[in-house]
């Protein structure tokens, strides 16, 4: 950190300083939110079609600049350029979907008024909230926050974005490129800074906070917002299980589970951390994943990069040590696999269910594989942690049946992580993995509130909402309710 009012970003490969960014103060955050409020009113005054045009222009500009964005993601996170490019393109895909679908999803809806209110015309509108504060993590510095930013803007809000202090450059570039296409100043502003800048955003006059990060921070964000009744979306950590059934395609399961666990150095909230494999196919699955894992190595030119946040190395080491001390066996790697800033792949077998490698988010290139006697045992162990973000199931015939019993927000069958790339479906978790949804129609609705408008078309002799209500009206209500709702008792 070079001066009080700036902080530095670093290359996680060698710790070299990349650039300095403003450490935005509380007062500046508050002033930014005030400016965003004026911008949100101007944005809402545009027609949905005009808003769509602006967002699609941003989409085209991001596409034109995708190589520059990917290079910056690589520089700040250490991930391979191919992963960085994929991440940026997926984020652009979400922006395009949100822009193109907002009008249809959020348009005013007519609803039936029911027998007693047949003289009413009823509609529901989805109203933008105003200013949405987005707080982002570093592991997918464009994909993750854009899941909130794109959908909040498309729904008619202004956005103030606080990127992670580990990836401020990606955030700043997003903001810079938006200014090039925006007809309205301060509609999307990036406030770089340390965690205190995030705290200030939660205490500002925002109308909603969409937070992505650790469960520990999410609880602080929710508590801060609760004091002013500011609603929150919380996208937090996971301990995602993979279930490998007896009828699984084992090559596919080994290939995908390995990638899900190790890619991006295991720093994927929806990445595999645990595998429950049916005893009858366990030896074959374990042999297949071992053969593949032996070819995977980290490094500047490796399959994946360093730990982006150096302090995570201690957490990864402690989970490996805890598993080892409780009797886990090592298929790949061991207690000496953490070699800062990299972590070699670690695959553990027979990991006690009470070890932190099973109960806590490791966020490193580690995988615990445990054998189970039945699918019901796999399901109950998969559901046993306090997380509930995503899961994968490998089974040729029973995938959906298993998926439906998992307590989590997203399940891939015979694939991994695919849902994140499909813009039309909601993304989010349950339990300690958070609440609220980004992506898809649910992600657009998340950044609006419903306003019901009921209009009396004509007056009828039977009035209910007046002191003129008659005994006949009372009788009529009773009779109507009996007629409509008493059949259930047979
Ligand atoms: P983090 O919780 O440390 O920080 C996230 C952001 O919150 C940063 O911008 C940080 O500056 C800010 N912050 C810190 N303290 C704050 C406070 N008290 N008030 C407001 N803001 C504050 O998380 P991280 O290390 O950046 O990200 C990794 C975590 O994010 C992992 O747990 C991962 O699973 C999770 N994650 C979840 C998803 C998802 O969609 N569910 C996606 C990506 C990452």
Secondary structure topology:
Blueprint: E1 6-10, E2 17-22, H1 26-45, H2 48-64, H3 66-77, H4 81-106, E3 109-111, E4 120-128, E5 131-135, H5 143-154, E6 158-162, H6 168-181, E7 188-190, H7 195-203, E8 208-212, H8 215-226, E9 232-235, E10 240-244, H9 250-262, E11 272-278, H10 279-293, H11 312-325, E12 329-332, E13 338-339, E14 342-343, E15 346-349, H12 356-359, E16 366-372, H13 375-382, E17 387-388, E18 390-394, H14 399-403, E19 410-413, E20 430-431, E21 434-435, H15 440-445, E22 448-456, H16 471-485
Helix pairs in contact: 1-7, 2-4, 2-6, 3-4, 3-6, 4-5, 9-10
The structure holds nicotinamide-adenine-dinucleotide.
What does this structure look like?
By secondary structure, the protein is α/β, with parallel strands linked by helices. The chain is built from 16 helices and 22 strands. It has helices at residues 26-45, 48-64, 66-77, 81-106, 143-154, 168-181, 195-203, 215-226, 250-262, 279-293, 312-325, 356-359, 375-382, 399-403, 440-445, 471-485; strands spanning 6-10, 17-22, 109-111, 120-128, 131-135, 158-162, 188-190, 208-212, 232-235, 240-244, 272-278, 329-332, 338-339, 342-343, 346-349, 366-372, 387-388, 390-394, 410-413, 430-431, 434-435, 448-456. Helix 3 packs antiparallel against helix 6 (168-181). It starts with 5 loop residues before the first strand and ends in a 5-residue tail after the last helix. Bound molecules: nicotinamide-adenine-dinucleotide. Nicotinamide-adenine-dinucleotide is lined by residues 135-140, 144, 162, 164-165, 195, 198-199, 202, 212-214, 217, 220-221, 235-238, 269, 309, 361, 363, 389, 429.
């Amino acid at each position: 950190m070079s001066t009080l009012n700036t902080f530095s970003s670093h290359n996680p490969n060698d710790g070299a300083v990349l650039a300095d960014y403003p450490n935005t103060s509380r007062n500046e955050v508050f002033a930014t939110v005030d400016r965003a409020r004026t911008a949100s009113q101007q944005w809402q005054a545009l027609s949905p079609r005009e808003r769509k045009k602006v967002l699609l222009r941003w989409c085209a500009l991001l596409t034109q600049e995708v190589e520059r964005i990917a290079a910056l993601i690589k520089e700040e996170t250490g991930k391979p350029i191919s992963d960085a490019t994929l991440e940026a393109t997926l984020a652009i895909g979400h922006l395009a979907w949100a822009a193109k679908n907002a009008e249809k999803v959020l348009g005013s809806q007519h609803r039936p008024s029911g027998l007693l209110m047949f003289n009413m015309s009823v509609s529901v509108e989805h109203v933008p909230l105003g200013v949405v504060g987005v707080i982002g993590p570093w592991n997918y510095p464009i994909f993750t926050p854009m899941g909130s930013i794109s959908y909040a803007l498309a729904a008619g809000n202004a956005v103030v974005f606080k990127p992670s202090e580990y990836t401020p450059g990606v955030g700043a570039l997003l903001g810079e490129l938006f200014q090039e296409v925006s007809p309205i100043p301060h509609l999307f502003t990036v406030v770089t800074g340390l965690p205190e800048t995030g705290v200030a955003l939660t205490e500002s006059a925002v109308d909603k906070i969409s937070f992505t990060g650790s469960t520990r921070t999410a609880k602080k964000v929710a508590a801060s917002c609760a004091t002013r009744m500011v609603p929150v979306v919380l996208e937090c950590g996971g301990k995602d299980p993979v279930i490998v059934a007896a009828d699984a395609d084992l090559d596919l399961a080994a290939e995908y589970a390995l990638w899900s666990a190790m890619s991006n150095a295991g720093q994927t909230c929806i990445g595999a951390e645990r595998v429950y494999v049916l005893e009858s196919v366990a030896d074959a699955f374990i042999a297949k994943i071992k053969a593949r894992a032996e070819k995977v190595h980290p490094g500047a030119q490796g399959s994946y990069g360093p730990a982006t946040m150096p302090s995570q190395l201690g957490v990864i080491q402690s989970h490996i040590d805890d598993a080892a001390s409780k009797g886990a066996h090592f298929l790949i790697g061991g207690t000496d696999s953490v070699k800062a800033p990299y972590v070699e792949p670690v695959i553990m077998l027979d990991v006690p269910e009470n070890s932190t490698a099973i109960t806590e988010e490791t966020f490193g290139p580690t995988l615990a594989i445990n054998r189970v006697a039945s699918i019901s045992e796999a399901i109950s162990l998969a559901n046993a942690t306090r997380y509930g973000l995503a899961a994968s199931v490998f089974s040729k015939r029973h995938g959906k049946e298993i998926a439906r019993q998992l307590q989590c927000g997203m399940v891939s069958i015979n694939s991994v992580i695919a849902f994140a790339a499909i813009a039309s479906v909601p993304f989010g978790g349950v339990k300690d993995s958070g609440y609220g949804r980004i992506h898809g129609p649910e992600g657009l609705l998340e950044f609006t509130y419903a306003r019901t408008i009921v209009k009396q078309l004509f007056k009828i002799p039977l009035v209910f909402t007046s002191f003129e209500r008659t005994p006949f009206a009372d009788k009529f209500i009773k009779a109507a309710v009996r007629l409509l709702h008493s059949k259930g008792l047979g």
